[in-house]
Design brief:
- The structure is a single chain.
- The strands form 3 sheets. The chain has a 5-stranded antiparallel beta sheet. The protein has a 3-stranded antiparallel beta sheet with strand order 2-4-5, with no helix packed on it.
- The N and C termini lie far apart (125 Å).
- It is built from 3 helices and 10 strands, in the order H-E-E-E-E-E-E-E-E-H-E-H-E.
- The protein is of the alpha+beta class.
- It folds into 2 domains: 61-130, Antifreeze-like/N-acetylneuraminic acid synthase C-terminal domain (Type Iii Antifreeze Protein Isoform Hplc 12, Alpha-Beta Complex); 133-225, no CATH class.
- The chain has helices at 34-57, 185-192, 203-214; strands at 61-66, 75-76, 81-86, 108-110, 125-127, 133-140, 154-161, 171-181, 195-202, 219-225.
Length: 227
Amino acid sequence: MMTGVSRSPGATSAVSGAVAPPALRFQRAGWRDPRLWVGVLLVAVSVVVGARLLASADESVAVWAVAADQGGGATLAADDLTVRRVRFVDDADLGRYFAADVPFPESSVLTRSIGAGELVPRSAVVAGDQVDLVQVPLEVQPNRVPAAVDRGSVISVYLDDRAARRGADGVRALVGVTVVDAPAYDAAFAVSGHRQLVVAVPGGTAEAFEQLLASMDDPVLRVHVDG
């Protein structure tokens, strides 16, 4: 007589011999896992390479430049200067200008005109005691000088001999000179009826200008703002 075997639902059959598969569990990668170290190494290499690329991309240097137009004979002060960052292809080119990591030489005078934003070349600057500049006073009819002309303006001066009836443009007698003094318009006009200006002119140029002025019977001056 055989006795029946009872089996509960879900139980493994002893007859069939089937075994339930083990449960899968998530395992975190340990610090000894080589994949972790490979990832850390890649990140470190990326940081180093990126830093070197940024450093090589910014090889510019700070150089002194003029903030506004400056004419020959102008004495450069701190307010006249600004700093520009420039990348020179040849390092030797930097020696032609004034690096901004060193204070600009005091009492430096320009020997020629320089436009706003232009780097200050050493070849265009001399010490104040080494330049032969003459301050030349000018009296100009109010309608022949722009009202905006003031101290520091860079101008050209034209001369016309009204008696000789020369061309309307006249002779360009002074080019790119700096106004070193410009009395108040109302005060100057009340005294002489003219706009008074004082410009800095190299000695040789000043002498030639005076000679040209004296050669005219009825000279008329006209001022043009450069730049």
